[in-house]
Design goal:
This protein is 74% helix and 0% strand. It contains 14 helices and no strands.
Length: 272
Amino acid sequence: MTRIYSPWRLAFVALTLFVFLMPPVWLFLSSLKSQQEIFQWPPTIFPAHVTLQNFIETVSRAKFLIFFRNSAIVSVLSALLSVTISVMAGYALAKFRFKGDTLFFLLIMSSLMVPLQIVMIPVFLVLRDLHLLDTLAGIIIAPAATPTGVFLMRQYITNIPDSLLEAARIDGTPEWRILLRIIVPLSIPAIGTLLAFNLVWRWNDYLWPFLIITDQDKWTVQVALANTVGRFGINWPRLLSMSVLSVLPVLVMFAALQRMLMSGLMAGATKE
């Protein structure tokens, strides 16, 4: 089949690529400029004199490595906890029938319609009573159970044939082993998709860490980025270099999980 590339279609694709790619490209190129070159007039896209001094100064600050470590701990542990809860909840809702199971599922789904700002105060009070404020555990535990994750895993596990589970039960296999040996291996694409989304969500999360963390040594990268903007001025070279470094883990993560991510999304879209 011969594809027709009309000028309008090519122009639309070029414009779309420009709109989406220009901001990160400008961010990266500007981070390689000196402060004088960033503010020179007329502005330029490409740096006349490439310098890595902005990155060296940012990384040499001991606090930045602490912020980076905190974000990594929060992202990985929170994503693993969220995936674990979502798989167990999805398995229970997909393969077990009990009184009120449909109502229970609808209640979980209805929480998607509740704005995040409404539940923040109750969750904040619970964490205060548990003495988890100003701790990394408070950032990890609060968003652990998400209705999106439960919905995704429930829909995927529903498509796994019941005959496999019945055969295992006839052989006397306990439910926890069925979950680990049958459900989890067959749900790897969906688990990978959910894991990738959770890692990105937690890494880019700003509002919740900002609300419960006051100790500077427990800041995440996003909170540290926001606090780079001072009251009377902004250190633009440092802000640009920190922004580039904060984006790199997300790009690496998507490159590593891209195949699993697409497989999970396509399987969820086409499986009957």
